[in-house]
């Protein structure tokens, strides 16, 4: 059987806002969009649930997450790297 190439996985960088669940973190990812009429930049925030196998990330950390297969109803991302620890 021939190997089929997998699509490129999505990656996001965001800040951990909650680490209270076991092996799960909540990551807030900010993006800036331009208002269609007024031209002002607006910051929109999206929260993702990400799998953290070692419970390593803490609230306030800046992390990188990657899309993966569904692990639960809302958890389809996993922790790749902790870029910066909270002060």
Automatic annotation (TrEMBL):
One of its GO terms (molecular function) is rRNA binding. The keyword Hydrolase does not apply. SUPFAM superfamilies: Nucleic acid-binding proteins (SSF50249). Pfam families: Ribosomal_S17 (PF00366). Keywords: Ribonucleoprotein, Ribosomal protein, RNA-binding, rRNA-binding. InterPro entries: NA-bd_OB-fold, Ribosomal_uS17, Ribosomal_uS17_bact/chlr. It comes from the Bacteria. GO terms for cellular component: cytosolic small ribosomal subunit. Part of the 30S ribosomal subunit. Belongs to the universal ribosomal protein uS17 family. One of the primary rRNA binding proteins, it binds specifically to the 5'-end of 16S ribosomal RNA. This is Small ribosomal subunit protein uS17. It comes from Halalkalibaculum roseum.
